[in-house]
């Protein structure tokens, strides 16, 4: 009994620092966010409870709904593109191209997002940008990539895919190289084609790893802000304004901190629902 009590006390003392950190950095800010969501900030007075005022404001805020829809489009296309390209690279690199080639592939992930935004903004420049210069040499007229409302969002998505495909690539490559070789040898003996082996062996065996990779990238992609802000600032005509940028504008440009907190709380709920639905769908399909 004394030994059990001693173990319990030791376990409690060992986990106490982690619990304190969790409460301080996660639970307390979330509780504060909920409190702020039903308040309005008044200069000189601080936060004042306003009840459901922010709820009705959100229901009638067409721009907020548009930014949320744009966010889901941005996340879905970006993460899907990262997965397709990352899986393709992992299959290509598996078992070969070790060392320098693999290091070069992951370089974009190591660059700071703000630096990525600056670099790609220069590359997208309609006059001096390298992209339009290359297109001009092959007889194609370049676009004003970040100022054209029809292609601005897709231009930003390309940057997101370019930077974070290496994350998916590394996880999937590690998964591929850990798969048992016996399955592939058996499939080869049975006469299975490369496509059949990929569909009936590789994907099912990789499904837990795929779900983890997509889950983490989806969570991070919802928080995108810095690259988009550097590239377009949410423009032109708000076509690249996702919810994080709209929350920034509402909170710090219009000084509606309470409403901004409510939008952030709503976005947390959407992220949870989206991820649960996304993971449930993947578990059924993979």
Question: What is the CATH-assigned architecture?
Answer: Orthogonal Bundle
> What overall form do the CA principal axes indicate?
globular
Task: Kindly identify the CATH topology.
Answer: MetI-like fold
**CATH-defined superfamily:** MetI-like
Number of helices: 12
Can you describe this structure?
This protein has a two-stranded antiparallel sheet with strand order 1-2. The chain has one domain: MetI-like fold. α3 packs antiparallel against α9, α7 packs across α9 and α11 runs antiparallel to α12. It is built from 12 helices and 2 strands, in the order αββααααααααααα. The longest helix is centred in the first third of the chain and has 36 residues. With 286 residues, the chain is mainly α. 76% of the residues lie in helices and 3% in strands. It starts with a helix and ends with a helix.
Short description:
This protein has 286 residues and is an all-alpha fold. The protein is built from twelve helices and two strands, in the order H-E-E-H-H-H-H-H-H-H-H-H-H-H.
Keywords:
286 residues, 12 helices, two-stranded antiparallel ribbon, mainly alpha, MetI-like fold
Give the secondary structure arrangement, pairings included.
Elements (H helix, E strand, L loop, with lengths): L1 H36 L1 E4 L3 E4 L3 H8 L1 H32 L6 H11 L2 H11 L6 H8 L14 H26 L3 H9 L4 H29 L3 H6 L11 H11 L3 H29 L1
Antiparallel strand pairs: 1-2
Helix pairs in contact: 1-12, 2-12, 3-7, 3-9, 4-7, 7-9, 9-12, 11-12
